[in-house]
Structure formats: C-alpha cells, structure tokens
Design a protein that fits this description.
This protein has about 80 residues and is mainly alpha-helical. It has helices at about 10-20, 30-35, 40-50, 60-75. The termini are far apart.
Length: about 80
C-alpha cells in the first residue's frame, strides 16, 4: 500500500490554509505564527465557514479538520 501523501509541508502551510478559509487571503507572518501557537480560534472561524450547513462542503470541512490536526500534532 502506498504511503499517504501529506497535504502540508509545514505547520505554517496548514496555518495559512486555515487563515485563507477564515477570510485572510494574504496573512502576515505574525498571523501565521499565532495560529501555529494557538490554532483554536482560527480553526473555529474556518470551521464555521467550511461547514456544509453554512455553504461549505464535506470535503472542505474535512480538510479544515485535517489542518487543525496537523498543527496540533506538531505542537511541542
């Protein structure tokens, strides 16, 4: 069985994705760093927008969840 392809190369990439879903198309380095340290607030806002009941899709919601899990998994 082939190895799973990782969606993000870095935690910063996953944070940038969450910020993009949340409505920040060009987040600053400070914004990205904050999400890497404490992703919960950005995750909640991105999840609200990605949820199928709010006009998002199952696929987008799943990707938002994977981004949060990726960031959480990299925490020291």
């Amino acid at each position: 069985m082939p190895a799973a392809v990782q969606e993000w190369a870095t935690v910063e990439d996953a944070a940038r994705f969450l910020l993009g879903v949340d409505g920040f198309p060009r987040p600053s380095d400070d914004d990205i760093e904050l999400v890497c340290i404490a992703p919960n607030g950005t995750y909640r806002e991105a999840a609200k927008k990605a949820h199928p009941d709010a006009g998002g899709s199952n696929e987008l919601m799943a990707k938002v969840n994977r981004a949060k899990d990726f960031i959480d998994g990299a925490a020291p």
